[in-house]
Structures are given as C-alpha cells and as structure tokens.
UniProtKB/TrEMBL annotation:
Residues 217-237 are annotated as: Disordered. One of its GO terms (cellular component) is microtubule. It comes from Neocallimastix californiae. This is AAA-domain-containing protein. One of its GO terms (molecular function) is isomerase activity.
Amino acid sequence: LFTGILQPWKGLLLFGPPGTGKTMLAKAVATECRTTFFNISASSIVSKWRGDSEKLVRVLFELAKYHAPSTIFLDELEAIMSQRTSDGAEHEGSRRMKTELLVQLDGLSKNSEHIFLLAASNLPWDLDTAMLRRLEKRILINLPDFKARKRMFEINLPNGSVDSNNNIVVEGLDYDKLAELTEGYSGSDIKLVCKEAAMIPVRKIFNILEQMNEKDTEELARNNHPENENEGEGLKREPVRMKDVFKALECTKPSCPTTLSEKYLEWQNNFGSY
C-alpha cells in the first residue's frame, strides 16, 4: 500500500524553544517504534582528521541500513548542518561532511530502506536550506499551554504525597493558580521551580542544624535512631505549600524570552510542515 506517492516520510524535524521535550520525544519514539536507534551528536561524526567525517557519515547510514528498520536521531542539528557559505569563512572539511550527509539523505528518499531520520533543533533558522528540503515534516514543539503546565505541577508536586515516614510532603497547592503564574515557562523551567520549592523545607532543617550545639545534635540523632521508641520525634520536614512555590518563582525565571517564542511561530508560518 505505502509505495509510490504514498511512501512514508523519511525525515522529521522537531524545533522549538529549549526545554520543551524535543529530545524526550525522540526517546519515546525509540521505545515505541522498536527500531534500532542511533543517537548522534556533533562529536559522533565530526573528526579533526581529513576525510574522516565523511567516512563516519557514510558508515552511520550503512549501519542503519544493515540494522533496518532503524531510526537516526540528530540532536542539536544546527551544530552539524548550519548554512553553507561561499565566502570562504567555512572550513572545507565541514563543507564536505555536510555534503556527504545530504547525499546520504537523498539516498533514503530514492530507495525502500526502512530508515527514518529524526532531528531536533533550537535554531531552525540557522539550518541549511538543502537540509530543510530533506526534512519533509517540520513540527514546532512550543511552550506548554495552561493545561500542560497544570499537569506538570500535579506530577512533580502531587498534593497529599507522603515520604517513607508517612509525613506529608506537599499540601494545599492550587494548580490552576500556579499554571496561570507560569505562562512562558518551559517544561524544564517548571521542573526547576518544583525542585526549588521542594528544597525550601529542607533548607530550613539545615539552618536549624547549623544553629544547634553538639549535645543537641547527639540527642536528635538518638531520637531518630530506628531502635528508639521515640523515633520521629526530632526534626520534621515541613510540607511544600503555596508560599514555597511563590518563593521559588521569584528566583526562577523562564529561560525563553517572549520575543524568541514569537520568532519560532513566525518561522513555523514560513517554513513549517505538519
């Protein structure tokens, strides 16, 4: 069925702000598709020896054909396939490596090998136009919306969760309010906010311990010993509350400026294919 004009796409580009889960999506593809997965970065195929980079690219695609069906994932694609120039500013070796990669990708579209190229980039406007032509699908992985941000807080800081001593770790969080306050935050930024909020009660315990003398510290250690009947009567970690998350938000700002997010949308309108 999937032959001729119905032949599946051979290349896909995931682009968007940093921290939105492009690499995580690639890992999910590797798990769900059950294909041989090649995770490639610039250090994997770029060599200081003349001619080695082109050989590594060719060997990569030969291995992918041998172990087909396979998926080749190129992370941070702009480091490998930036725009080629004719003013002599680009090194000859880099230009030859890019040409070899383009030739190998052309070979994928002209045969029936079950090889899929998956690429991720934070700077799609820096990619070579010939590379964009070979990446037939170009999909924007944008910043999370209100519903996604709310779900991220629910996963990272679930209300009513307890630790190994049955002490409540998180309570009283208003996820709708937190999702509203974190507009413009990426998934990675929200995780950092949750981590910072979870550390605040721990820092309070450290501050108390630093102010205690040696005698008080030994008594606290005896109370928390597993064989002590009064175990658990020492210091207890306070649960994470809304005030802790507010404090974490004050010192954790979004990593992607609003202007950059608009630039991704503009690029999608001009070059996107989804």
